User: Fold this.
Amino acid sequence: MAKESDENFEIKNEESTSWEETDLFKNRFAESTPGEMIFASRDMRGWSQAALAEKLGKSSHYVSDLENGRRSVSRKMAVALGDVFGCDPALFFNF
Assistant:
């Protein structure tokens, strides 16, 4: 029996998704702005704005502007955010 449960565990790992792609996240942030989505994704990972900025190759001021709606998220930036967070870029871009 132990082997059977190990196999089930492996299957679940292969099918795992990012936090942003879970129904819980989508329902909680369904009406959120792109900036709020960036903040939530960053915050749940315990990253500072500076840490996210470094991953994106931008300044922390730039990330702050995105999160606070002072700068809109371009398609290119949405793709970069999707890569950094491992999720669908559409979460960060208003189509």
Residues 1-14 have pLDDT under 50 and may be disordered. Residues 39 and 89 are 14 Å apart (CA to CA).
